[in-house]
Amino acid sequence: MNFSDHRLLIANRGEIAVRIIHAAQALGIRTLAVCSEADKLSLPATLADEVMVIGPARADQSYLKAELILEAAKQMNATAIHPGYGFLSENADFAQAVVDAGLIFVGPDAHTIRQMGDKACARTTAQAAGIPVVPGSDGEIDSLEGAIAAAQTVGFPLLIKASAGGGGRGIRIARDANELAKEFIIAQSEAKAAFGSGAVYLERFIEKARHIEVQILGDGEHSIHLYERECSLQRRRQKVFEEAPSPALSSTIREQLCQKAAKLAQALHYKGAGTLEFLYDDTSEAFFFIEMNTRIQVEHPVTEAITGVDLVQWMIKVALGESLSIQQDDITINGSAIEMRINAENPAKGFFPSPGRLTHLQWPVGEGIRIDTHLFDGYLIPPYYDSLLAKVIIHGQTRQQAFERAITALNETQIEGVLTTMPLHKALLQDPAIKTADFDTGTLEVWLPENLHKLIEKEKDDALTTH
Questions:
Q1: Residues 114, 229, 254, 295: which is the catalytic one?
Q2: Could you tell me the CATH number of the domain that includes residue 42?
């Protein structure tokens, strides 16, 4: 199929905007970047075929303004819009507005985004498809009385979760009825403030669980899975370090889990790339669906590394009308891959953001190394957005080889002028429990206080070389 008549507008910034630009240009598609005043000199603005400034630095005055993006699309004669991740990527109203404007939305339709974006509805949908879910309330809970009644069935400890939440936000833990009474009101208030909706639901809290997610891809008629990712190393429920495949799953469990994920995608007539997230209990070998992300994920490169499938290109191709030519039998696991998120943050000060100007930048090169980034020498990192600077993705024929290559890659990486989370990743790669995959979703929160002094000393050493 010839895509050269299309003009793709990227409604995002940073490394994902660069990733989409490269994928689109490889397909012969003209790329259009929109940016804030703070990003006028950014790498996406430089790489795109055309660029338009749509608003001030603040995201709520630029990247989150659907009307500004749609007006830019009109002026730039765009034919399609790719939302990336974050910002408006899972906003059903935006997806519908794109279609109503006569444009193509690169992703699932608004109905699917709305259906699976509401976590309570997503649970019901998964159950209807025969996928186990974590024991929880039957839909949303709108009163403390209702929460207390539901807790008798759900059991303690439990999570109070915002139905419209995401990214680890809008979640409170209650270990008994007294905590439930206190945390429920707080959870509703936080959900309303963060997502515009105070709707919450209850879910059993599995304390020793792994966070496993399955990548799916569909064209609206046919869906496949591309195996799973291990995302258990999290700080404040934000992913820090991911790998594929999960070192915790047996081949039998992997097959069961991935087949159920593909079954749900098929039931949704899913179009585009998406991710189904599960909790996995090592002891019982039980897995439970928790939510779905109807967009490309930050950690998608580890799946690309082990399967050889370009997920972003396929998102674009199916959105533009090409049928999925890959069959499930074509997808095999080749080796092991890890992704380390390098953020401009200072571990010595509670991982506080560390924006500033890069004075020197050097990335590693070599077999199995991939860098997804929007950085360049002299770049001024703005303080207005997420602190993610780059993703260092490493592939090896074995997990051990991937870890060894990762240590070498980080030692060869030089980012000067700002502090980063590289010391954290260097320490994780050499920790015995991490190397043997002996961890769960709570591990990093315990590990950090015990090892923070080492990271602080390393940050002090790094600070001497960056100033």
A1: 295
A2: 3.40.50.20
